Fold:
Amino acid sequence: MSTLLSRTGGRRALTAAAAGAVVLGLLLWWLLPLGEKPPGGTVTFSTGTRAGVYQKYGEMLRTALREDMPGLKVTLRTSAGSQENVERVASGEADFTIAAADAVETYTYQERPGSGRLRGVARLYDDYVQLVVPVDSQVHSVADLRGKRVAVGLPDSGVRLIANRLLRAAGLDPGKDITPRSYGIDTGPRRLGHDIDAFFWSGGLPTDGLRQIADTPSFRFVPIGEDLVGALHDQGGATRYYRATSIPQSAYPTVQNTAAVPTMAVANLLVTRDDVDPRLTEWLTRTVIESRDGIGKHVHSAQLVDLRTAIYTDPVPLHEGARRYYASVKP
Structure:
């Protein structure tokens, strides 16, 4: 009798195991597109400076992609920022990147090599312009930078693009009325008050390069008002992507003393090229959207990625693979 019961129990266990395997297979089939094996291969992702948000986001996204596509190798390449990123993807040096919409528009407007092949994957989060000065500085507006030593970002960065436009909007010649310095967020903060009087930064909130020194009362933000944003819009072209906003007090609470700081913002886009595999891009788009909360625990800006706005990648059209993904999740 005990032998019979043992055999019966064994058959039931085997039957339950088989049923479980079928359920697991169906679940995987439902979760994965058409039950397909995840794409593999190698892609290059151009990020940004080491202390910036682009680099941190790239690192976290690579981790998420490794979970979803174990056979995909993602190589990260640091860069000066948006302008270099766009050029790398357009030229084929990189497959994916993050770049501010104004930098993408500038590249396409100038009809630079490969500009017609640029495609959007997702609108991600906004960059906030942050003009930083020592806490005891006499600079209280962009116009007050006349005669000052100002870090305007690396030559091929999005920061340089924005800083020069802002200076012109304030009536300053970037090449004559200030002493420009080519420092980024990785070096600018520690030079402040020594060999520079101010520095521009454009990035997600908060940026590690600033948060690391925010606990000491060493710097403050210079407001960028709506009137200056309006003067920027008068320049035409890519300046239409700038919008007036404020740095919320929660971004750097020890610096802002519970006060928001007027400034401007520009959207960041995840960009690729038209010849990148649509199936790979579809999978990558899914990971970008579904990993938002996980990445957002480490990169605060990523929490703002939203399926409802991700499809708006103006000034470049959606990549076919991204379009497929958004169509598949459309209510």
Strands lie at 41-46, 72-77, 96-100, 118-134, 149-151, 179-181, 198-203, 219-221, 243-247, 261-273. The radius of gyration is 24 Å. Residues 2-31 form the longest helix (30 residues).
